[in-house]
Amino acid sequence: MQPSLASSYNNAPSVLPNILDTSAPNAQNVCPGYKASNVQQSSSGLQADLILAGTPCNVYGNDIQSLVLSVQYQSKSRLAVSIVPKYLAPHNESLYLLSEQFTPRPGAEDGSSNTTSDLTFSWSNDPSFQFEVSRVSSGETIFSTYGKKIVFEDQFLELVTSMVPDYNVYGLAESFHSFRLGNNYTQTFWNAYNLDNDQLPDVNGHSTHPMYLETRYGNGSSTSHGVYARNAHGQEWLLREDAVTYRTIGGSFDLYFLSGPDPKEVISQYQVGIINTPVMQSYWSLGFHQCRWGYLNWTNLRDVVELYAEQGIQLEGIMNDLDYLNLNRIFTNNANYPVDEGKEFLDWLHSRGQYYLPILDPNVYAPDPTNASDAYAPYDRGVELDVFIRNGNDSLYYGAEWNGFSVWPDFTVPQTQQFWTEQMAEYRKKLAFDGFWLDVSDPTSWCTGSCGQYQRSLNPVHVPFALPGDPNTSIAVDFRYPEMFNVTNATEAASAMAARASQMSAYPSMTLAPSPVLGRTLATPGVRNVNFPPYAINNFLPGHSLLKQVIAPNATHLDGPYNSTEYELHNLYGHLSGNATYNALVEVYDGKRPWFISRSTFAGSGSFAGHWGKFT
Length: 616
Known about the structure:
The protein is built from 10 helices and 25 strands.
């Protein structure tokens, strides 16, 4: 049995989310806003400087004194408004600008101008800079910051738009919530994985899609419009009775307004004009697939496929969870899934026109350097190519995943695409898999900080909590039975439960260690606190910290010389790892459309990936 990490490895200091903190200052009350100057207007849009209109409030960060406003009529249906710091240089660009390398940023189409646009932009400096976007045809205002202040700090941005009574807003995925979001709801974006219950309503999930569609009704008809905020930082959207407040803990305002005027047109304008249309899937991928944790071997998989046929149920593909891997290390097989038997199974499966789809995790096992028998070729190759995220500039970042202490490929740099493609190509020489489903790409780490930095000699270690199937815990599983089988077969259920209880009694249970509580941090001139920013978003995981169960926000990427951190890029990891996986599969499959779904996504991920999210 693998040694288990203590539960304290997964602890992180607790913070109080701003929306739950009754003593937290209201930025609208204490911040001065901005004044527009040097305004230059043309038929294509508007440019202006925005200068802080009073004493800096530094409420949740350091106020940016000088900003640049850019308004662009990009097409008949799309108007873009961006507000960025005036003084940007290589050392700070990644803090405020989301690279077009990561997700599309549209420009103006030929012939676009204010005379051809469905939308118009207007503004005022009284009492501070404020703006609104309206329909040309009706004069209806679809977005208005009038009466509110714009707040722009290095770790906090806020924009408030007034809303019509009983407004109807949809989108801001991903969460379990009613289709119509309502006006008493906060959507937090910080991609996260809750192992205890991945079906909680009204909390942040695995994906970030900061776009909403609003529909307004009147006089027997309706109109719809869309708003997309191109920002990948941790953020919150506060939907309240008469306003929507948009807050982020970094980046810039990069807003796109879509005129619709019906929901179908808004969605089309968003996909075709901004994030790209969904990838064309293979026909077979649209069929029924079977997946669960706990298949014991290739024979077990074959039995399941044959049972579907016996029952006359169409089955296109069968999936493996981690069960096939050697100690949960990607691109391996364990003794229960030998490669030679796997080839026979896949020959049989493919002869029936069916497909095999194993799981893939975007983390790489970091072998024990003191044990030559623990060598792991993908890790060695990744080190050789310099592809792994770092803990500062001096060492790799070692977190904990299903396989033990691990490192994570940095998908922002080109050598990582080479690495990822090489690994897939080598593995497919062994087994002709038909696609992957990418998991824990939030990205998830089951310990706080670079916990394996000096402890790799403990590898392979077990994560610091029990897993289904562990015999010494309350969640030991008998895979002969489906989940909830006791509801329908009480006799067998009682027998199995009694056997499990007897087995468990021989082992101690894990206990949770307490974690410290951290007070609200204060803005410090010239300093960004990326692990504990002054504004605490309502991350739903225990303690609400940005450090909880993820690669730490201060982990550094390889896009030097001024490296980005996970603070800026966390919500993009699933998107970037998904894109690299798709590109690798296209090459491995010689240009055929690959089957691929990703658990964590961002706006535009659909142009190369399918999606799976919560437990189902």
